[in-house]
Design brief:
mainly alpha
């Protein structure tokens, strides 16, 4: 199990560092189906994994001036409120239902990522735009609810929102997304622990450490790889995991502890 956690952690980190999100959407199934964690501790552990990975990736990209700090700060504040409310709602939902609700979220993320990849990078760096305040606050709150409810970082939604809605260039969107994920992930984790959720420190550390290494490598490797190929590969993987979860819940008895 430890070897599998290291290998999968590196892979998840590469995804986070290269496409600006998606770590928790992959870490949650790893916790449940590879490490044998119940949904509750798995959701909390996945938040640790994604927050650590995002912080590493954000730090690497921030040094090169890629983060749009005003957008990140405006987005993160309502996301923190949404994360708290999402956590309270998620605590009232059973494991099997939570997974079933997670599947369409994953498929929507896959579709959005595929569309974003097909749109290309938009002709290079356009700097940091100044979107209207209301849409940023609304998007931040919605992502926060998603983060708290499912125990995910939300980057698979944040990057498409930043690029397609707010006109942020792809690389800046990735860097900005990682900052937002770090902030909202910490708030959501605190909310999970505050509502009584457990966390397996050993399993979390086994996955978080290699994920951090992978995120550092991914942030650098992504600069040398076609972004369209990265985005579409991620979309295919997320779709495959979503279909596996659907089959498991409907036909194979569902996740441990459901």
């Amino acid at each position: 199990m430890l070897v599998a956690a290291v290998v999968l952690g590196l892979a998840i980190g590469l995804v986070v560092g290269s496409v600006g999100g998606g770590g928790a959407i992959l870490a949650l199934p790893v916790f449940v189906y590879v490490l044998g964690e119940p949904i509750g501790p798995a959701a909390s552990g996945s938040l640790v994994v994604v927050a650590v990975a995002a912080a590493v990736g954000a730090g690497s990209l921030a040094r090169s001036g890629q983060v749009c700090w005003p957008i990140a700060g405006t987005f993160a504040a309502p996301a923190a409120v949404g994360a708290l409310l999402g956590t309270l709602a998620g605590a009232e939902v059973g494991s099997a239902l939570l997974v079933l609700l997670f599947v369409p979220v994953m498929l929507a993320a896959s579709f959005a990522t595929w569309q974003r990849a097909g749109a290309g990078s938009g002709g290079g760096d356009r700097g940091c735009p100044r979107p209207a305040l209301a849409p940023v606050l609304t998007a931040g709150f919605a992502v926060g609810v998603l983060t708290g409810f499912f125990g995910v970082g939300g980057g698979f939604v944040i990057v498409p929102v930043l690029t397609l809605w707010f006109g942020v260039g792809f690389r800046r969107a990735v860097a900005t997304s990682l900052v937002i994920i770090t902030l909202t992930g910490v708030v959501a984790l605190a909310s999970h622990l505050g509502t009584g959720s457990d966390i397996d420190l050993g399993a979390t550390a086994a996955l978080a450490l290699p994920t951090a290494v992978g995120a550092f490598l991914g942030a650098h490797v992504a600069e040398r790889l076609p972004q369209a190929a990265l985005g579409r590969a991620f979309a295919v993987v997320v779709s495959a995991v979503a279909l596996f979860l659907l089959v498991d819940v409907l036909a194979l008895g569902g996740p441990p502890g459901s």
